[in-house]
């Protein structure tokens, strides 16, 4: 299995599981899921919305992409070119996605 090493982490983050109704420490998170229930971890990074981290291949056009700057942008198309995933982002250019990098999305 590919190890996902690269993650764009925002300065100060707090983690929460909505299913368990509790704050999570980093030890309670594996692959950005709660180790107790395996649900997606909600991340409060001090941005205008909370976020979550997804694998590049799990991102769909229903996700809202979060730029490293903390801006939220709608994705209108997810595509693949020569095995590489890319996102077409509304009001922006095409964004090539590294396949070993976690993707910051709006939590929903
Ligand atoms: Zn949980």
Residue share in β-strands: 35-45%
- CA-CA gap between termini: 27 Å
Q: Give the overall average pLDDT.
A: 91
Count all strands and give the number.
Answer: 11
Helices and strands, in order, run as EEEEEEEEEEE
The strand line-up of the biggest sheet is: 7-8-9-10
Small molecules (ligands, ions, cofactors) in the structure: zinc ion
Taken from the alpha-carbon principal axes, the silhouette is globular
Please tag this protein with its features.
108 residues; mainly beta; 3-stranded antiparallel sheet; 0% helix; globular; binds zinc ion
Any overview of this molecule?
This protein is mostly beta strands and 108 residues long. The protein has a domain at 56-101. It is 0% helix and 42% strand. A four-stranded antiparallel beta sheet has the order 7-8-9-10, with no helix packed on it. A three-stranded antiparallel beta sheet has the order 2-1-5, with no helix packed on it. It binds zinc ion (ZN). The site of zinc ion (ZN) has 7 residues, from loops. Zinc ion (ZN) binds next to loops.
Compact overview of the structure:
The protein is mainly β and 108 residues long.
SSE diagram, text form:
Layout: E1 14-17, E2 22-24, E3 29-30, E4 33-34, E5 42-44, E6 51-54, E7 64-66, E8 72-81, E9 84-89, E10 94-97, E11 103-106
Antiparallel strand pairs: 1-2, 1-5, 3-4, 6-11, 7-8, 8-9, 9-10
Bound molecules: zinc ion.
Zinc ion binds next to loops.
């Amino acid at each position: 299995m590919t190890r996902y090493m690269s993650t764009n982490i925002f300065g100060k983050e707090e983690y929460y599981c909505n299913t368990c109704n509790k704050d999570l420490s980093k030890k309670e998170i594996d692959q950005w899921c709660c180790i107790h229930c395996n649900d997606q971890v909600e991340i409060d990074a001090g941005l205008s919305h909370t976020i979550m981290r997804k694998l590049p291949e799990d991102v769909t056009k229903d996700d809202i992409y979060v730029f490293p700057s903390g801006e939220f942008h709608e994705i209108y198309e997810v595509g693949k070119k020569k095995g590489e995933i890319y996102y077409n982002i509304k009001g922006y250019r095409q964004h090539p996605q590294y396949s070993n990098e976690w993707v910051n999305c709006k939590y929903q």
